[in-house]
Amino acid sequence: MSRQDTAPGASPAIGAALYDLATRAARRLPRDMSLTSAATLATLDRTGPRRVTELAAVEGVTQPAMTSLVRVLEESGLVERRGDASDKRVTLVCLTEAGASYVRTRRQAGVHAFERLIGELTGDEVEALAAALPALKHLAELERQNREEPKQ
């Protein structure tokens, strides 16, 4: 049995619900920095030091835009540039402890916001979300893999 047989037409509805939830969640985030800046910090937290060119590709911005963004994040003490031990010509952008703390705090605030909302659901709805958790985690991993593989 294919996945289309188990829930005909479900993919568009699920996609719409997830998109709506994600955009609403993004709008509720603190406005202390741009979404691209926050995403760049999260990428560095998840993947480790990266070249500016790699960060630009992953975040979907131009290299000059990422260079400017990194400069602002550096001035804020959230990232620093370091040489690459394996190639002295390369400079890597690294998360500082302040940057890592920012990412953890922002993520925890988002988790707490969803916890509050989940607390308003019925028991059956919470059970349905719990049952969907493996699929949601897999979906997040697929998105992450697709995002971090820059388009050629």
Provide a short characterization of the protein structure.
This protein has 152 residues and is mostly helical.
Describe this structure in words.
Helix 4 (about 50-60) packs across helix 5 (about 65-75). The chain has a two-stranded antiparallel ribbon with strand order 1-2. The mean pLDDT is about 90. The chain is built from seven helices and two strands; from the N terminus they run H-H-H-H-H-E-E-H-H. The two termini are about 35 Å apart. Helix content is about 70%, strand content about 10%. With about 150 residues, the protein is mainly alpha-helical.
Helix share, percent: 55-70%
Order of strands across the widest beta sheet?
A: 1-2
Radius of gyration: 19 Å
Proportion of strand residues: 5-15%
Poorly predicted residue ranges: none
Query: What is the typical, i.e. mean, pLDDT?
Result: 88
* Major sheet description: 2 strands, antiparallel
Give the helices and strands as they follow along the chain: HHHHHEEHH
Class from helix and strand fractions: mainly alpha
Terminal CA distance reads 35 Å
Shape field? elongated
* Count of distinct strands: 2
Q: How many alpha or pi helices?
A: 7
